[in-house]
Design a protein that fits this description.
Layout: H1 5-16, H2 20-32, H3 36-56, H4 71-80, H5 88-105, H6 121-133, H7 137-157, H8 162-165, H9 167-185, H10 190-202, H11 220-239, H12 248-261, H13 278-288
Helix pairs in contact: 1-2, 2-7, 3-5, 3-6, 3-7, 4-5, 5-6, 5-11, 6-9, 6-11, 7-9, 9-10, 9-11, 10-11, 10-12
C-alpha cells in the first residue's frame, strides 16, 4: 500500500520495474480482498463503458435542461474541415471529453472517474492514446490502473469532490490522473508520470465549482474539455524531462489547503461564480421556475 506519490513511485520502481498498473492491482487485491481476475474483469467493464460513452455522446441531442448538448459534434465537424489551429490529438481529446460529459448530462451511462461531473477527461485522453499510440487491450487497462493509483493518493490526501474542494478537486484530479496514465502509456517513467500530475494540479489550483442551476453541465462540460487538453500538454512536458520545482506531494497538499479555504459559494452550491451571474440566475429560473 502507498500513501503518497513518492511512495507510489518508489514502490513501482522497486517492486515492478516502474509498472504502476501492477502496483495498483496488488494494492486493490490488498484493499478489496478480490482476486486479480475479478479486479481485471471489473476494470474491463469500466473500459467498455468509457469507450462506449465517447461514441454515444457524439450526437446533436440536448440534455433535459437544454443547457448542453451537440457541442462535441460541432467540434467534430470543425475538425473534419482540416483547418484547425490545434493539433489533432489535442482536439480529439477535447471533443471526446465534451461528448462524455454531454452524455452524462443526458442521463447516459458514464464511468465516474473520479466523479460523474469530471467523467470526460479520462476516457477522452484514453481514447486519444488508443488512436495515437495503438494501445492493446492490456495497455488500455494498464492506463486505467495507473490513473487509479494516482487518483487514490489524491483522494486520500486532498479531495475529488467539488463540494469539498472546488472544481480543482474534480476536473483537476481527473486531468492529473489522465496525464499520469498517458505518460506511462507513452513509455515514460513512474517519476515522469508524477511530474505530469504536478503540472496539471499546479495550473488548476483554486478552480471553483460553480454549476449553473446546480447542474453539472455549465461550465462542467467545457472544463472537462480543457482539462483533457491540459493532460496531453502536461504529459508532453513530463516526457521532455521537465520537472516540477514543487514536489508532487506538496502540490497535492496545497490543493487540499486551497480547497479547504474556498468559501462555500464556490463549492458546488451554485451561489457564486458563473452560477451567480445574471444569465446564470436566469437560466436557473427558466429550468426550475423559481
Amino acid at each position: 500500500m502507498f500513501y503518497s506519490i513518492s511512495e507510489l513511485v518508489n514502490q513501482a520502481d522497486e517492486k515492478f520495474s516502474g509498472n504502476i498498473a501492477e502496483l495498483m492491482i496488488e494494492t486493490e487485491i490488498e484493499l478489496s480482498g478480490r482476486s486479480r481476475q475479478e479486479i481485471i474483469s471489473i476494470m474491463k467493464r469500466n473500459l467498455e463503458i468509457m469507450k462506449s460513452s465517447v461514441v454515444s455522446g457524439l450526437t446533436t441531442g440536448k440534455s433535459i435542461s437544454g443547457l448542453t448538448g451537440g457541442d462535441a459534434l460541432k467540434l467534430n465537424h470543425y475538425m473534419t474541415n482540416g483547418k484547425t489551429l490545434s493539433e489533432k490529438s489535442v482536439l480529439t481529446a477535447v471533443r471526446n471529453a465534451m461528448a462524455v460529459n454531454e452524455l452524462n448530462a443526458k442521463m447516459g451511462l458514464v464511468c465516474a472517474t473520479p466523479t460523474a461531473g469530471s467523467a470526460g477527461c479520462l476516457p477522452a485522453v484514453l481514447s486519444t492514446a488508443i488512436e495515437k499510440l495503438e494501445l492493446s487491450e492490456k495497455e488500455q487497462l494498464d492506463f486505467l490502473f495507473t490513473a487509479g493509483a494516482f487518483g487514490l493518493v489524491i483522494g486520500n490526501n486532498a479531495s475529488i469532490s467539488g463540494a469539498e474542494g472546488g472544481c480543482q478537486a474534480e476536473v483537476g484530479s481527473a486531468a492529473a490522473m489522465s496525464a499520469a496514465a498517458l505518460v506511462k502509456a507513452a513509455g515514460g517513467t513512474a517519476f515522469q508520470a508524477s511530474q505530469a500530475v504536478a503540472f496539471v494540479i499546479k495550473n488548476m489550483l483554486g478552480l471553483i465549482c460553480d454549476p449553473v442551476a446546480g447542474l453539472v453541465e455549465v461550465p462542467c462540460v467545457k472544463r472537462n474539455a480543457l482539462g483533457a487538453s491540459f493532460a496531453l500538454v502536461a504529459a508532453d512536458m513530463a516526457l521532455a524531462g521537465i520537472k516540477s520545482q514543487i514536489p508532487t506531494d506538496e502540490v497535492i497538499d496545497a490543493m487540499y489547503q486551497v480547497g479547504s479555504s474556498l468559501p462555500t459559494a464556490f463549492r458546488e452550491t451554485a451561489e457564486g461564480g458563473l452560477a451567480a451571474t445574471p444569465t446564470g440566475k436566469q437560466l436557473s429560473k427558466e429550468i426550475f421556475g423559481k
